[in-house]
Write a structure and sequence with these properties.
Blueprint (H helix, E strand, L loop, with lengths): L5 H21 L3 E9 L2 E9 L2 E9 L14 H17 L8 E9 L2 E9 L4
Length: 123
Amino acid sequence: MRRKGEASAKKTGLYYETQAAEFLEKRGYEILERNFRCPAGEIDLIAKEGEYLCFIEVKYRSERETGTPEEAVDGKKQKRISRAALYYLMRQKLGDTTPCRFDVVGICPDEIRLIRNAFSFKR
């Protein structure tokens, strides 16, 4: 059973993930997956940029009092994204020589920011 507001939050999240995907495509990224879910976790966007396979977390903040969107991608979140990325690589039969990185797209009402290589793989 869904909690009150969960459907609205999901709809909001999908809206900003779409904004992020369009932003990235304009910068040459090729979006491969949206909302990749697996037993290890979830990745908002998976894309190719040049030779890199990018695992991208999208964060939105309507107000800065709670910090920047990028600050919300803490160590715990990084570990979940890392585990989901590893699962994706294994499922796609991609070897450990595939160049990968973790990017974060931070969205505020007045701007969208991209942080390439925002964090390293976390065990």
